[in-house]
Amino acid sequence: MLYSEKVMDHFIHPRNVGTIENADGIGEVGNAKCGDIMKIYLKIGNDMIVDVKFETFGCGSAIASSSMATEMIKGKPLAEALTLTNKAVAEALDGLPAHKMHCSVLAEEAIKAAVKDYYERNGIEYDRTQFPDCASCGHCADGECH
Amino acid sequence: MNIYADNAGTTKMSRTAIEAMTLYFDQIYGNPSSLHSTGQKAAEALFMARKMIAEILGCEAREITFTSGGSEADNQAILSAAAIGARKNKKHIISSALEHHAVLHTLEKLKKQGFEITLLDAHENGIVRVNELAAAIRPDTALVTIMYANNEIGSVQPIAEIGKLCRERGVLFHTDAVQAVGHLYIDVAAQSIDMLSLSAHKFHGPKGVGVLYAKKGIPLTSLIEGGAQERGKRAGTENIPAIMGMAAALEEAVSKIDENTVKLTAMRDRMIEGLLEIPHTILNGDPINRLPGNVNVCFEGIEGESLLLLLDSKGICASSGSACTSGSLDPSHVLLAIGRPHEIAHGSLRLSLSEENTAEEVEYMIQNIGDVVAYLRSMSPIWRDLQEGKRSYVIQ
Fold first, then answer.
1. Fewest CB within 10 angstroms: A97, B94, B264, B280, which?
2. Diameter of chain A measured on Cα atoms
3. Per-residue confidence (pLDDT) for residue A135, from 0 to 100
4. Does domain B257-387 correspond to CATH entry 3.40.50.300?
5. Do A32 and B309 touch (CB under 8 A)?
6. Mutate which of A17, A28, A54, A59 to disrupt the B interface (most B C-beta within 10 Å)?
């Protein structure tokens, strides 16, 4: 089997699929040409992630990574969500095949992009070094990520 | 429910093939190169299998070389033609953009050795144009290699016309017929084919065995040295059980071509009709000049690997040309060659039917594929953008 049982569970029964109306922050990373796009919607209250939803175009591990990552940040303080790493997502899924690790990177970056969007909408100062651009996943060789 | 619809990937072995093999594991187990009677019995079996396959292809027994499969046959055919060409200072090879990697990667290797490669346009229907081939042939063209039928999109090339043209122009013609043999009628003499590759496991024979047909007078370059087997062109003790299984499977497949074609074409066309009812779906390959069991479509807004995994959970075994299923960054080179943009090629689905599939299975697949596509679209941000007019549809 290519994927762990955890990955398959989160792929077949993804948690937090959907959108949030009037979301406080939205982050979209990836690119259709490369075959995966992740979009994260955040509802934020008192610096906490009150609710999170995702939409993903991509392979099984991209959907599973989105599902797991949203589970990991739901109900957590924003500052904690920002410390979520792709490795933690992959570990929580009991591992991903080497050529699928970029899916977990996309999940980390989609969350960061959504938080950044929240900060920018509300004019909140933030540390830019905490937000690498999505090219860091190395998935899109031609650097066409947005 | 378990529906196997990946017969272009490999097929289930037929009882006929299995039964034809068993005798050669523990009864007639000799080495055909041995002089004793145990070995000679194996040599006789080998001779019979060679003769059977030659008769089916329309050639002579000595024009058949047994290989480990289609990839080896492709490699050997192309490298042999290149060696012949190089001796006459002909270092130009014509092929197509939708060949199997066994051909394309061998051509890449030759390119590094100074060969010039022309890849013919596959056009949107996945069929090369004979007039474009005629224009591409040069005095230094050593080989034309065009696949008989495409493994992904099923398009069938005008092989007899290509053969005739190559014969007239004095250029060697090889065809990778891995997907065609056992499914379409082939006559290497009538179709002016100089070299042909086939693989047993695509027609209910065993894996790891195939054939390179090479017209007499074409000297083959051996890829494996070390013995006089296969007229010195392919060393190594012959895989007698597999060869016997291949011959039996081929004979059976060819005897059923007519009835299988009728059955498969009806299922294929129903499947295509049913899948094209899913909005923003497009057929890949030619609707008419197409392998009888091949269905290949692209669905806009979804990715193929997730589609395959969900179909598998519903008992449907299929295949896709998405990058995620190949482990590379790019989707199928065949889909790109027929002009599908990357984001569409990622959402491809191939169903390759065999005569063992049923009309009920076809209906089950149409229903479930529709449900899975709708489900994946419901969670796709691309699909949302398309629906909201923020992105325009590629597939109308």
1. A97
2. 47
3. 55
4. no
5. no
6. A59
Q: Which of B351, B288, B340 lies closest to B98 in space, CA to CA?
A: B340
Residue of A18, A35, A63 lying closest to B323 (CB–CB): A35
Q: Kindly report the nearest CA distance between residue A58 and chain B, in angstroms.
A: 5
Question: Distance between CA B186 and CA A18 in Å, rounded?
Answer: 53
- Provide the ipTM: 0.91
Q: List the domain boundaries for chain B.
A: 15-255, 257-387
- Quick check: is B166 catalytic? no
Whole-number Å distance between alpha carbons of B174 and B197: 8
Q: Determine the distance in angstroms separating the CA of B123 from the nearest CA of chain A, rounded to an integer.
A: 21
User: Residue with structure tokens 């006559």?
Assistant: B187
Residue carrying the six token digits 């209250």: A45
A108 vs B47: CA distance, rounded Å:
63
Query: What does DSSP say about strands B3-4 and B316-317: parallel, antiparallel, or unpaired?
Result: parallel
Q: Which of A140-144, B237-241, B324-328 has the highest mean pLDDT?
A: B237-241
Strand order across the beta sheet in which B195-199 lies:
B64-67, B210-214, B195-199, B172-176, B141-145, B92-96, B116-120
Amino acid found at B4: Y
CATH code for residues B15-255? 3.40.640.10
pLDDT value, residue B322: 83
Determine the average pLDDT of the residues in B107-119.
98
> Rounded CA gap, B337 and B344, in Å?
13
Strand partners, B301: none
The pLDDT, as a whole number, for residue B323 is 75
Measured CA to CA in angstroms, residue B341 lies from A62, A142, B126, B338 at distances of: 21, 15, 15, 9
As its CATH architecture, domain A5-122 has Alpha-Beta Complex (3.90)
Q: CA A64, CA A61: separation in Å to the nearest integer?
A: 5
**Chain A contact set for B306 (CB, 8 A):** 11, 58-60, 62-63
Q: Which residue in this structure is represented by tokens 């090369």?
A: B128
The CA-CA-CA angle for residues B82, B157, B328, to 5°, reads: 70
Q: What is the pLDDT of residue B167?
A: 98
CA distances to A17, A65, B300, B391 from B385, in Å: 16, 22, 12, 5
Cβ neighbours for B69, distance < 8 A, ≥ 6 positions apart? B199, B200, B201, B207, B208, B209, B210
**Domain map (residue ranges) of chain A:** 5-122
Which residues on adjacent β-strands are paired with residue A55? A39
Using the structure block, give the residue that is written with the tokens 């989707």: B331
Does the pLDDT of residue A1 top 80, yes or no? no
Average pLDDT over residues B158-177: 98
| Partners of A26 in beta bridges | A41
Nearest 5°: the CA angle B242, B244, B246 is 70
Residue A134 — very low, low, confident or very high, per pLDDT cuts 50/70/90? low
- Distance from chain centroid for Cα B117: 21
Give per-residue pLDDT as tens, B258-294: 999 999 999 999 999 999 999 999 999 999 999 999 9
Confidence of residue A142 (pLDDT cuts 50, 70, 90): very low
What CA–CA distances, in Å, run from A14 to A6, A7, A30, A56, A100? 11, 10, 19, 11, 18
